[in-house]
From TrEMBL:
InterPro entries to which the protein is assigned, alphabetical: RNA_pol_sigma-70-like (IPR039425), RNA_pol_sigma-70_dom (IPR014284), RNA_pol_sigma70_r2 (IPR007627), RNA_pol_sigma70_r4_t2 (IPR013249), RNA_pol_sigma_r2 (IPR013325), RNA_pol_sigma_r3/r4-like (IPR013324), WH-like_DNA-bd_sf (IPR036388)
Domain RNA polymerase sigma-70 region span(s) in chain numbering: 10-74
Species name: Saccharicrinis fermentans DSM 9555 = JCM 21142
Protein name, as recorded: RNA polymerase sigma factor SigM
Superkingdom of the source species: Bacteria
Record-annotated RNA polymerase sigma factor 70 region 4 type domain positions: 99-150
Taxonomic lineage of the native organism: Bacteria, Pseudomonadati, Bacteroidota, Bacteroidia, Marinilabiliales
Annotated NCBIfam families: sigma70-ECF (TIGR02937)
Recorded family membership: Belongs to the sigma-70 factor family. ECF subfamily.
Keyword line: DNA-binding, Sigma factor, Transcription, Transcription regulation
Gene Ontology MF terms in the entry: DNA binding; sigma factor activity
Length: 161
């Protein structure tokens, strides 16, 4: 596929792909992101794609990108909808270890596992990715989100000590 054919496919199919994704997600911003990702993936492989097969390639790529997005969202904690008061502790503990374990138990399983592997067992990001069958980037994201939750839950260390 040439650059001209790629641009023509963008003009021809972008609206159709957007409507297809939007119908499934019902979120305009996520739908736009998926369409963008789809065309990015097609551009990366544009030399290997036949111009006669571009429509089916675009829709199958959009479908797989949509499924990946839905799966990612399923495991993402919805912090915007969370009750902030539920994640802060006002009790005074002298045992920080107990507070930390309570906070760890509140994490989603994937975040808890990667934090335990990283901070307790000392594994590298690559080793954690191999163990959990996640990408290295996803491991880093889960560790970051888990640590953010722990930081918000525990609050200031001076309050606990």
């Amino acid at each position: 596929m040439t650059v001209k054919e790629y641009n023509q496919s963008v003009e021809e199919y972008s609206d159709n792909i957007y409507r297809f994704v939007l119908k499934n997600l019902k979120d305009t911003e996520k739908a736009k992101d998926i369409v963008q990702d789809t065309f990015e993936k097609v551009w990366k492989n544009h030399k290997d794609i036949s111009p006669t097969k571009v429509k089916s390639y675009l829709f199958s790529t959009a479908y797989h990108t949509l499924i990946d997005s839905i799966r990612r969202e399923k495991y993402k904690a919805e912090w915007d909808k969370a009750d902030d008061n539920k994640y802060f502790t006002t009790q005074s503990y002298s045992d920080l270890n107990e507070v930390l374990h309570q906070a760890l138990d509140m994490l989603p399983p994937d975040q808890k596992n990667v934090i335990l592997l990283r901070d307790y067992e000392g594994y590298s990001y690559k080793e954690i990715a191999d163990i959990t069958q996640l990408s290295e980037a996803q491991v880093k994201v889960y560790i970051y989100r888990g640590r953010q939750f722990l930081k918000n839950y525990i609050g200031k260390i001076e309050v606990l000590v």
